[in-house]
Amino acid sequence: MTMHQAQAQHDGEQPQDVAGAMAQYLGDIGHRFGVYADQLRRLSQQRQEELSQLRNELRAQDARLNNLLQLHNQLREELSGAAEGRHHTLAADFKDLMQQEVLRTCITVEACCPSTHEIDTQRRRVTLVRRLCRLLFGALPAMNSEVRALFRSTVASAGPEAEKHVASLAEPLCAKVNALRAAIAETGTAFRWDFEVPPGSVYSPEKYQLWQTASAQGLVKYVVIPAYVVPGRPPYVQATVFTALLAQFGTPVQQP
Fold first, then answer.
1. Which residues lie below 8 Å from residue 221, measured CB to CB, with a gap of 6+?
2. Is residue 26 over pLDDT 70?
3. Burial tier of 206 (Cβ tally within 10 Å: 0-12, 13-18, 19+)
4. Which of 14, 41, 214, 230 is such that its CA lies 20 to 30 A from the CA of 192?
5. Is 254's pLDDT higher than 50?
6. What is the β-pairing status of strands 209-210 and 240-242?
7. Selection from 243, 253, 237 nearest residue 216 by Cα
8. Contact 213, 247 (CB under 8 A)
9. Three-state secondary structure along the chain?
10. Are 105 and 197 within 8 A, CB to CB?
11. In the chain, how long is the greatest CA-to-CA distance?
12. Residue 23 above 60 pLDDT?
């Protein structure tokens, strides 16, 4: 008998009892590991199913998003095309308004002024049109009071009756201009009337319209009638610019 066996017998334990306890302990550990492994497999399978479901939902959401983007782009193109056509129509209305209302009104106002030298008359007219356009097509809607004040100051030397007559022209003119401004705003696109021109620019028919009594030989001094501009597009109506009077170059001018 070995010393270990003697010690075990002395302690009241049998070697086979220790081995059985160890085997039972190891069996319990193995069973627990098996249970844990089974739980992990079930959790893993559950997570895989959840991930698969999430992937399917994401694919469905992605498909819906793509459809919405396509509809959005299609709608934007349709709106852009509609706005493009609308701006062309409104630009033509702007030209008609300038010719039939603004310029004619200026001629009526100027007719109330005392006769002066031809060059002085031409200067007065271009100055009146320029100042009037600034009031009508500036950042704010046209104000009757400002236009009346401009007309009255222009004919002040002609007396009270002339002032009263030209003042009556302001309200209907402002109403027509503000109606056009409102129609342009309804397009929903960014827009401006552009009065800016680089000082001393060389006149170019590709860039500007030339004021009717101005010379193409001079440098551009300022804008008389603004450009009709939508950002990102060529001007729908080019700006009308003033350089120098044709009369100053000895060229006769046919009055409108």
1. 241, 242, 243, 244
2. yes
3. exposed
4. 214
5. no
6. parallel
7. 243
8. yes
9. CCHHHHHHHHHCCCHHHHHHHHHHHHHHHHHHHHHHHHHHHHHHHHHHHHHHHHHHHHHHHHHHHHHHHHHHHHHHHHHHHHHHHHHHHHHHHHHHHHHHHHHHHHHHHHHCCCCCCHHHHHHHHHHHHHHHHHHHCCCCCCCHHHHHHHHHHHCHHHCHHHHHHHHCCHHHHHHHHHHHHHHHHCCCCCCEEECCCCCCCECCCCCCEECCCECCCCECCEEEECEEECCCCCCCECCEEECCEHHHHCCCCCCC
10. no
11. 149
12. yes
> What share of the chain has pLDDT > 70, as a percent?
84
- Let me know: does 190 contact 208? Beta carbons within 8 Å: no
Query: For residue 88, what are the CA distances in angstroms to 38, 223, 236?
Result: 74, 21, 7
**48 dihedral zone (left: phi>0; alpha: psi -120 to 50; beta):** alpha
**How far is residue 221's CA from residue 13's CA, in Å, rounded to a whole number?**
119
pTM of the model: 0.66
- Structure confidence at residue 79 (pLDDT): 46
**Distance in angstroms (rounded) separating the CA atoms of residues 236 and 225:** 13
| C-alpha dist (Å) from residue 218 to 16, 30, 174, 183 | 122, 103, 33, 36
